[in-house]
Amino acid sequence: MPERIVTWYRDRWRIERWHLTLKTGGSHVEDLQLKSLEQLERAITLYSIVSWRLLWMTYQSRIDPGQSPTGAFSPAEISVLERLATTQKPVRPIGQPWTLRDAVRAMAKLSGFLGRKSDGEPGVKTLWRGYRQLPWLCWWDQVSQNPS
Known about the structure:
This protein is mainly α. About 65% of the residues lie in helices and about 0% in strands. It contains five helices and no strands. Helix 2 crosses helix 5. The longest helix is centred in the middle third of the chain and has 27 residues, at about 35-65.
């Protein structure tokens, strides 16, 4: 029983961070002025998933920065982020595989994250801003490769 209580308290801050991300991270769920309860439920459901994904990416990139980005990003997202990163200061030496940390930092740079030594790792708000740009970049990449 004491182990369960300790585990609950240990994990409680993650739940609180998720709520904070949902409320202020980029969705501002409390500020939505939708006309029906159904619209609000759909919006909260969608934003909950995005909030969880970004929070998970934030912590995973800090806990295990060397892991592959394929568990957090789609192949299209990775491709776009890698190409964008090569137009800037190189993230990795040539020949080394891309990591989750590299992908997260590249996404954060879409929102203005500079990635200097003293900056630390990007937070959820910064990632949210970068994430909002990523689907459009993936769409544009797909359209430009397959013009019909």
